[in-house]
Design goal:
This protein has 565 residues and is of the alpha/beta class. The chain is built from 23 helices and 15 strands.
């Protein structure tokens, strides 16, 4: 086992310099903890299904918005014991959330303790934790990854799991638990907060908005952390491929990007790199496009560019596209329900042919025919084990290869009909894990640290069932505003495992929003001409307009959102 000293000797020069970076805080949090005041707004309602959710969360529903500002308080410096959990997939900046939480606790009272639960929510259930001290925190400041304590996808949902979580919290004498996660993880945070309140435990639960997918946002959570870094990382790679394509002039590159439930990453990367084609899942669904029509859309760019002698290009594909094509969405929904009916029985069917036979009696004829029409290797990917939330694992569906194959087939038809005279050679890529643990950008380093510090302040003021919120993110960090949003405010009911469950409502790409409209105004030109942009690597040192810039999405979106408040 390496010591901290041995580990720090084996680091890159960049990592050493990132250790020295001091994240910026909003002015309202940058002074002494005794100078932070809490302001509570009016009671809130959920995003939808208000009556049903009020019954789900009888003790924590309807809490007011919380905002921090300059002022005086007399209780923020109490000694606290807090547990922190990293939940779900990794996102750049998670370590800084923990660092901000730790620094806040220690600034409030040097006797406060921070426990890190190992391996995600399972660590809380099984009481696997370690005390995070200054040496441990300093080893991970401003670095990517979740390796300080690890993450996991265990969902706290059974009576026994809730009881075990409470038992652990009591054994450690915790005042609060902080869950750093996405929409499902923070839904879990809300349920845990309700359970602790029901049991009269006096243990608070606070969430922090994490997901590179960018679909955890609303008026009060302007972006989820990690989105900025991931998009910049992917855009660098896309720009590199565009440069290669424009140099070799002989390949079409089909690039699938992270984004199961929304196309925010694909849209942001398109704005940063200007590819020839970028599919937006929400638009495909809105227009009711079939799989064949999506293929025709891609072929239109390929044939028009071939007329100019350009037999190369780049196509961006959101990871979750198949769930937005109506016929495919219907198929996936029916498969999810069919498998959820008897998951153990289906798991025992090893043969693909036998799986198809089983499903032929449990899904509709059109869906069954569509499943049969897919290449066998692709069809198998629709039948793999579901994730802990009952969803098909779309990252394992090779949509980029499916579309490439269908495009190639369609181009052969067009060539036979004398409608296409170009040459088609293609490459496929999937950019996913490459962006989840990158060194966080300055923006994410600052934003995450502020979220962690805000989580401490929410705990210090005795609040529970809240998500840390930092706003006004297009301004310099000193002008950001901090506070908290009741998690129930962001919820609706959705079908999960065959029944209605409370979940945080995902934020999809808005087709009438400024980011999409900006993309829409330019894409017809990009489809034909070579307009590639090469954003290059994330910059950490230099002028703020280079190093501290947020995403194009948030810069375009915030004026639109403010008008809607």
């Amino acid at each position: 086992m390496e010591t901290v000293q041995e580990v720090t000797m084996n680091i890159s020069i960049l990592q050493k310099m990132r250790y020295a970076y001091k994240p910026k805080l909003p002015a309202g949090l940058s002074g002494g903890v005794d100078d932070i005041a809490l302001k509570l707004g009016s009671p809130t309602e959920s995003a939808a299904d208000q009556k049903e959710l009020r019954e789900f969360f009888k003790l924590t529903y309807g809490k007011p918005l919380a905002a921090f500002g300059k002022g005086k308080n007399d209780g923020i410096g109490r000694e606290l014991k807090v547990g922190v959990i990293l939940s779900g997939g990794q996102a750049p900046g998670g370590h800084n959330v923990i660092a901000g939480l730790y620094d806040g606790l220690k600034k409030g009272n040097s006797g406060s303790l921070l426990y890190g639960f190992l391996g995600g929510p399972g660590g809380l259930i099984e009481n696997k934790a370690l005390v995070l001290d200054a040496a441990k925190i300093d080893e991970y400041r401003n670095t990517g990854g979740f390796d300080i304590i690890g993450s996991g996808r265990t969902k706290i949902e059974s009576r026994e799991q809730f009881a075990a979580s409470l038992k652990t919290a009591k054994e450690l004498n915790l005042n609060a638990v902080v869950i750093i996660g996405g929409d499902d993880s923070n839904t879990n945070a809300a349920l845990l907060a309700e359970y602790f309140e029901k049991e009269g435990a006096g243990i608070q639960v606070i969430g922090c908005p994490k997901t590179i997918d960018g679909d955890l946002k609303n008026k009060y959570v302007e972006t989820s952390f990690g989105f900025d870094t991931a998009c910049k990382t992917y855009s660098e790679l896309i720009g590199n491929i565009e440069r290669d394509a424009n140099s070799a002039k002989k390949y079409w590159h089909f690039i699938k990007l992270m984004g199961r439930a929304a196309s925010h990453i694909a849209l942001e990367c398109a704005l940063q790199t200007q590819p020839n084609v970028c599919l937006i899942s929400e638009e495909v669904e809105s227009k009711g496009l079939s799989l064949d029509q999506v293929v025709e859309h891609i072929c239109a760019s390929i044939t028009r560019r071939a007329e100019n002698g350009d037999n190369f290009g780049v196509v961006l594909i959101p990871e979750g596209l198949v769930e937005f094509i109506p016929e495919m969405k219907k198929l996936i929904g029916e498969l999810n329900d069919a498998i959820a009916e008897s998951p153990d029985k289906f798991a025992k069917i090893s043969s693909f042919i036998d799986q198809l036979y089983y499903l032929s009696r449990h899904i509709s004829d059109p869906s069954y025919k569509l499943l049969q029409s897919l290449p066998p290797d692709i069809a198998r990917e629709f039948l793999v084990d579901r994730d802990p939330h009952g969803n098909v694992q779309v990252s394992r569906i090779e949509t980029e290869k499916l579309l490439m194959g269908m495009v190639e087939k369609q181009l052969r038809v067009l060539k036979e009909e004398k409608l296409y005279k170009g040459k088609f050679n293609a490459q496929t890529h999937f950019f996913g894990y490459e962006g989840r643990c990158a060194f966080p950008s300055n923006f994410d380093s600052d934003y995450c640290y502020s979220l962690g510090y805000s989580a401490f302040v929410l705990i210090a003021f005795g609040l529970t069932g809240y998500l840390a919120s930092v706003r006004n993110l297009t301004a310099p960090a000193a002008e950001w505003t901090a506070g908290g949003v009741p998690i129930t405010m962001m919820m609706n009911l959705e079908q999960r495992h065959g029944s209605k469950k409370p979940v945080i409502k995902k934020a999809l790409v808005e087709l009438d929003g400024a980011p999409f409209k900006t993309f829409d105004a330019e894409r017809d030109t990009w489809a034909v001409k070579t307009c590639f942009l090469y954003p290059g690597a994330i910059q950490y040192f230099g002028p703020p307009e280079v190093c501290d810039e947020p995403t194009k999405t948030i810069k375009l979106e915030l004026p639109y959102r403010r008008n809607d408040v």
